[in-house]
Write a structure and sequence with these properties.
Distance between the termini: 9 Å
Helix content: 55-70%
Number of domains: 1
Number of helices: 11
Low-confidence stretches: 264-270
Number of strands: 2
Order of helices and strands: HHHHHEHHHHEHH
Mean pLDDT: 93
Oligomer: single chain
Radius of gyration: 19 Å
Largest sheet: 2 strands, antiparallel
Strand content: under 5%
Shape: globular
C-alpha cells in the first residue's frame, strides 16, 4: 500500500502496532496473541503496509536467508552457557542444590526445544529481524539494540502487570528493575550476534537457548528452599547473575568486533 515509507516511519508503525497488540491482548489465550505479535506485525509490514515481502531482498534484509552456522556455538555459550553458570553460582553460594535427574528430563528438554524455538522465532523476526533492519539504516548497532530493548521491556509489561503468567513472585519493584536491565542487556547481546552473523536465526537460537536452558535447569537439576531468591533475584530468566553474565558477554563481543557503522539498506520498489 505505502512502499515509499522511510525506515523511521516503518519502525514507528511497527512499534506502535506491536505495543497496541500487547496492551490489548495480554490476557487473551494465555498471552499467545501477545507472544505472536512481533511475527504478526512483521507480516503486516512486509505484505500489506509495504511490499518488501514480495522480493527476496526484503527477506534478506531481515536476515532470514542466512543461517550463520559458525556463530551457533558462540551463541549457545553466551546464552545457555551463561544460564548454566548462574545456577552453578547459586549452588556455590549454597542457596540452591542439585537434585536427581528424573526420567522425564530428556523428553521435557525435547519439548522445551521445540516450543522454545517456535516462540523465539515469533519474537525475533520482529525484534532482531524487521525492527533491527529498519533502525540500523540510521543508527549504530548498540543504539538500535537499546531502542529495541526499551520497546521489548514495554511490550512485556502488560503481560507482567496485568496477568498472573509471568514474573509473579517476589518484590514487584525489584523484579521489574532486574527484568528491564536484563532485557536491555539481552537486546544488546542478541543485536550484536545478529549483526556479526548477518543471520536472524542466530538471534532466534540466542533467545531460545536462554529460555530453554534456564527453564530446564530450574525444573530438572536444581532444588531450593528459597525459589524467589534463586529464580527471580539471582538466576532464572532475568536474575542478577544473568544480568552480569549477559553484560559480560555483550562487552566481550563489543571488544572483539570491528567497528560497525550505520549502513544504508536497499529499498524495494512496489
Amino acid at each position: 500500500m505505502f512502499p515509499a515509507f522511510t525506515s523511521t516511519a516503518k519502525s514507528t508503525i511497527f512499534i506502535a502496532g506491536v505495543l497496541l497488540i500487547a496492551l490489548t491482548t495480554a490476557g487473551v489465550a494465555g498471552g499467545l496473541i501477545l507472544a505472536l505479535s512481533p511475527l504478526l506485525m512483521t507480516l503486516l509490514m512486509m505484505f500489506v503496509i509495504t511490499r518488501d515481502g514480495y522480493s527476496r531482498i526484503g527477506w534478506r534484509t531481515i536476515g532470514i536467508t542466512r543461517l550463520g552456522l559458525r556463530w551457533w556455538p558462540t551463541t549457545l555459550l553466551v546464552t545457555a552457557g551463561v544460564s548454566a553458570l548462574t545456577y552453578a553460582a547459586a549452588i556455590a553460594f549454597r542457596v540452591a542444590e542439585t537434585t536427581a535427574i528424573a526420567a522425564t528430563a530428556w523428553p521435557n528438554l525435547a519439548s522445551l526445544c521445540l516450543t522454545g524455538v517456535i516462540l523465539a522465532f515469533a519474537e525475533e523476526i520482529g525484534w532482531r529481524g524487521y525492527l533491527h533492519a529498519q533502525l540500523r539504516e540510521r543508527t549504530a548497532v548498540v543504539k538500535s539494540s537499546i531502542i529495541i530493548g526499551v520497546v521489548w521491556v514495554c511490550w512485556h509489561l502488560p503481560y507482567i502487570l496485568f496477568t498472573t503468567y509471568y514474573h509473579t513472585d517476589g518484590n514487584r519493584t525489584v523484579v521489574l528493575i532486574l527484568f528491564s536491565c536484563s532485557a536491555c542487556a539481552f537486546s544488546i547481546l542478541f543485536g550484536l550476534l545478529r549483526e556479526r552473523s548477518g543471520s536472524l536465526w542466530v538471534a532466534v537460537l540466542a533467545h531460545a537457548g536462554h529460555n530453554v536452558a534456564f527453564a530446564w535447569i530450574a525444573a530438572e537439576f536444581v532444588n531450593t528452599s528459597n525459589p524467589v531468591l534463586v529464580n527471580e533475584y539471582l538466576a532464572g530468566d532475568t536474575g542478577l547473575f544473568v544480568l552480569i553474565g549477559t553484560v559480560a558477554s555483550a562487552t566481550f563481543l563489543l571488544m572483539r568486533r570491528s567497528h560497525i557503522k550505520p549502513r544504508p539498506r536497499a529499498c524495494t520498489a512496489a
